[in-house]
Specification:
about 90 residues; three-stranded parallel β-sheet; about 45% helix; globular
Length: about 90
């Protein structure tokens, strides 16, 4: 998670959306995404998780441009969801 934030900071101008796992080492996906929002406030995110989407979308993520999908994710669905987030 912390490495994802560092990479995002270095490349934010070239990134249109982020794909986040809910569980990552050192910094979970939600907290990493919140750190990314400080750099680029309107960056959309797609969260992939084996957990319920309701858990991911609670609290600090309410009202933000985020989606959640359950693992395993069919590649076509992944592409469809990311394209929809980027297009608005």
């Amino acid at each position: 998670g912390s490495e994802a934030v560092e990479l995002f900071r270095d490349n934010a101008a070239r990134i249109d959306a982020v794909l986040m796992d809910a569980i990552m080492p050192r910094l979970n996906g939600r907290d990493a995404y919140l750190a990314m929002l400080e750099v680029k406030p309107r960056i959309p995110a797609l969260f992939a998780s084996g957990y319920s989407a309701d858990i991911l979308m609670e609290g600090a993520l309410e009202g933000l441009k985020v989606e959640a999908v359950q693992k395993p994710i069919p590649p076509a669905l992944l592409v469809q969801k990311l394209a929809a987030l980027i297009q608005g």
